[in-house]
Design a protein that fits this description.
mainly alpha; 161 residues
């Protein structure tokens, strides 16, 4: 094996040093800067992507906050409209109820007057009918016709008029 031959050992070490130095210079001047640049570019890209993601998250948070605020305002407005409508309808119903109550009260008053008039008329007719019937009974029992004035006076006395 030529590597173990001590006579060529010194030139091999020289060539090893030259080759190592050339490779070292190539690595330092070319390969390592390119790898470093790639790593730096990758770090910059990741940082930019993180910044972009953070700004998008902030935009999304602002949009969600605006949406929730708009939703809350819409709910409040809808509640206000519903309450206003309920109040308006309640007022209309109360006004209509008062109107109907007034009409019913008027009709009840008219009906009470009509009932009182009918009662008075019926009582007057009862007295007349009672007088006629009493006169007929007296005529049937006695065979003599009683005077209408006397029969009316007797019926009035019994009725308490």
């Amino acid at each position: 094996m030529p590597q173990l031959d001590f006579s060529t050992f010194l030139p091999q070490l020289v060539w090893l040093a030259i080759t190592f130095s050339v490779l070292y210079l190539i690595m330092v001047k070319v390969a390592i800067p390119r790898i470093g640049g790639a790593i730096e570019d990758r770090q910059n890209k990741i940082a930019n992507d993180l910044d972009l993601a953070q700004s998008m998250k902030a935009d999304t948070d602002r949009a969600i906050a605006a949406y929730e605020q708009a939703l809350a305002e819409a709910k409040a407005k809808a509640h206000g409209i519903a309450q206003e409508t309920r109040d308006r309808l309640a007022a209309e119903i109360d006004a209509e109820r008062a109107k109907v109550d007034t009409q019913i009260a008027e009709k009840l008053a008219d009906a009470d007057l009509a009932i009182a008039a009918a009662k008075d008329k019926a009582l007057m007719e009862v007295n007349e009918i009672a007088s006629d019937v009493t006169g007929q009974i007296v005529t049937d029992l006695t065979g003599k016709k009683a005077s209408a004035a006397a029969v009316k006076k007797a019926v009035a006395a019994i009725a308490g008029n």
